[in-house]
Amino acid sequence: IPTAWENVIRADQDERAPLAETLQKLRQLHATTRVNPPMRESIARVRNSIECLRLVHCQITPDTIEMVAKASIKEEVRVAEMLLPEWVVKLTEGTRR
């Protein structure tokens, strides 16, 4: 969570659950926050990692998503190529053992 967002949360709450107004402010901050190209690529890589796991019927967990994403970086696979059948099989190898 960005520091500015944490400040919004702290300003509106004590030890209880966040107020509706706080959640609304966070949604507004999220909607207006720009996503830079490296972050956009990371988001797409995670999305494609989930899709790779789905295509080979592997369990989708934070660990398996991370495993596939890291494998794609290690193999220097472009995000756009991750869903090609040959890469789907190769990138998900570690999750099927």
List the helices and strands and how they pair.
Blueprint: H1 3-12, H2 20-32, H3 37-55, H4 62-74, H5 85-91
Brief overview, please?
The chain is mainly alpha-helical. Helix content is 64%, strand content 0%. The chain has helices spanning 3-12, 20-32, 37-55, 62-74, 85-91.
Brief descriptors of the model:
mainly alpha, 97 residues, 0% strand, single chain
Describe this structure in words.
The mean pLDDT is 88. Helix content is 64%, strand content 0%. α1 packs antiparallel against α2 and α3 packs across α4. The protein is mainly alpha-helical and 97 residues long. It contains five helices and no strands.
| Estimated structural class | mainly alpha
Q: How much strand content do the residues show?
A: under 5%
Morphology call: elongated
Rounded mean pLDDT score? 88
Task: Measure the end-to-end span.
Answer: 34 Å
Number of helices: 5
Proportion in helices: 55-70%
Return residue spans where pLDDT drops below 50 for at least 5 consecutive residues: none
Major β-sheet profile = none
Number of DSSP strands? 0
List SSEs in N-to-C order. HHHHH
How much is the radius of gyration in Å?
A: 18 Å
